[in-house]
Amino acid sequence: MSTVDVATYAVHIGRGVLDHLPDLVKGANQVAVIYAAPVREHATRAEERLRAAGHHVLPIEVPDAEAGKDISVAARCWDALGEAAFTRSDAVVGVGGGAVTDLAGFVAASWLRGVRLVTVPTSLLGMVDAAVGGKTGINTAAGKNLVGAFYEPAGVLCDLAALDTLPADDLLAGMAEIVKCGFIADPEILRLIEAGPAAALDPAGEVLAELVERSVAVKARVVTVDLREGGLREILNYGHTLGHAIERRERYTWKHGHAISVGLVFAAELGRLSGRLAPDVAARHREILERLGLPVSYPAEAWPELHAAMRVDKKARGATLRFVVLDGLAEPGTLAGPADELLAEAYRAVAA
Ligand SMILES: NC(=O)c1ccc[n+]([C@@H]2O[C@H](COP(=O)([O-])OP(=O)(O)OC[C@H]3O[C@@H](n4cnc5c(N)ncnc54)[C@H](O)[C@@H]3O)[C@@H](O)[C@H]2O)c1
Ligand SMILES: O=C(O)C(=O)C[C@@H](O)[C@H](O)[C@H](O)COP(=O)(O)O
Ligand SMILES: [Zn+2]
């Protein structure tokens, strides 16, 4: 087991870390456990621990994946908390993938203007990214994560045993954010994956445990300095400007990590074409993602729609699109207002 400290809380990583849950909600009378059906067994395990510690548990099952990141679902959660007379001394626990912890975080941030939140990520992506760092939110018709709040959890419990039941494709999705961390901050991550992609994808293996720890450490370092994304935090959005546009175009039927994988190849090309990133580092993006089995291309004809969708990216300022690019390995920077021709040329590198 290991612990990574983020600004005001700890991320516990390892098999059996769920034991910390009662401590994290100490003092709460009621604890709402928000989860989706595929992780019911993990939610039940959390509920059992909470009941054993004397808490009154309010289980709230929500639609799975992106269907849960919707205002109607948040409203149903608020109704459930209202009916239970949930007060400021109570606590919300989000158990599930990134979609559930984003939703649960938003519910906790908004109910009574903020009640205690604990995240229990059960997907790889949730452990290395979504459940850590305080970004919470839901989608709207215009795009991904457009409504939300920065709201820090009281603690994060990454029980690696949960990965045993995670579908292989979702494990792969999490690997895209891990690769992102490798390129923006910790190249040892890339070396570990390149040394053996299959070992890296073994949920019971030591390599994956190290990759989780290293990725959480990258995120912790960044959000501890810049919780509200005033500057540095934007580097965690590497690959996301195009990735989010793909998710929206696919009506959220693509996994987030898969869309980010294509977005990473695009961002690497932007860096290369703008003369900032060496060709071999740009090529390494495609190579490592392909070796893992992640997608690296998207239909050519989608470009006009994707270009338009990128306008709602949170890094945009007015009509100026801004991208995270690399000046080298682990040297992220910003590219503001690239010419449309440059964007189109970078897209040709991923166009199928
Ligand atoms: N807040 C942030 O900083 C942040 C960071 C990255 C991603 N995100 C968001 O996270 C979401 C993606 O997260 P995700 O990849 O976990 O997808 P997801 O939440 O949709 O989960 C993927 C699928 O795996 C299932 N699942 C999760 N854990 C399981 C387990 N242990 N066993 C069996 N099934 C399990 C889920 O129920 C779902 O069906 C996106 O909405 C993305 O925008 C947020
Ligand atoms: O934590 C961050 O900051 C990130 O950008 C991490 C991303 O992996 C994550 O997908 C995040 O939800 C994207 O945020 P958004 O602000 O672009 O909606
Ligand atoms: Zn992401």
TrEMBL record:
Chief place where the protein resides: cytoplasm
SUPFAM superfamilies in the record: Dehydroquinate synthase-like
Catalytic activity: 7-phospho-2-dehydro-3-deoxy-D-arabino-heptonate = 3-dehydroquinate + phosphate
Residues binding Zn(2+), per UniProt: E177, H240, H256
Cofactor(s) needed for function: Co(2+); Zn(2+); NAD(+)
Enzyme class per UniProt: lyase
Keyword NAD belongs to the record: yes
Boundaries of every 3-dehydroquinate synthase C-terminal domain copy: 174-316
Pathway(s) this gene product operates in, as recorded in its UniProt entry: Metabolic intermediate biosynthesis; chorismate biosynthesis; chorismate from D-erythrose 4-phosphate and phosphoenolpyruvate: step 2/7
Keywords: Amino-acid biosynthesis, Aromatic amino acid biosynthesis, Cobalt, Cytoplasm, Lyase, Metal-binding, NAD, Nucleotide-binding, Zinc
Domain 3-dehydroquinate synthase N-terminal: 60-171
Positions bound to NAD(+): 64-69, 98-102, 122-123, 135, 144
Family: Belongs to the sugar phosphate cyclases superfamily. Dehydroquinate synthase family.
NCBIfam families: aroB
Descriptive protein name: 3-dehydroquinate synthase
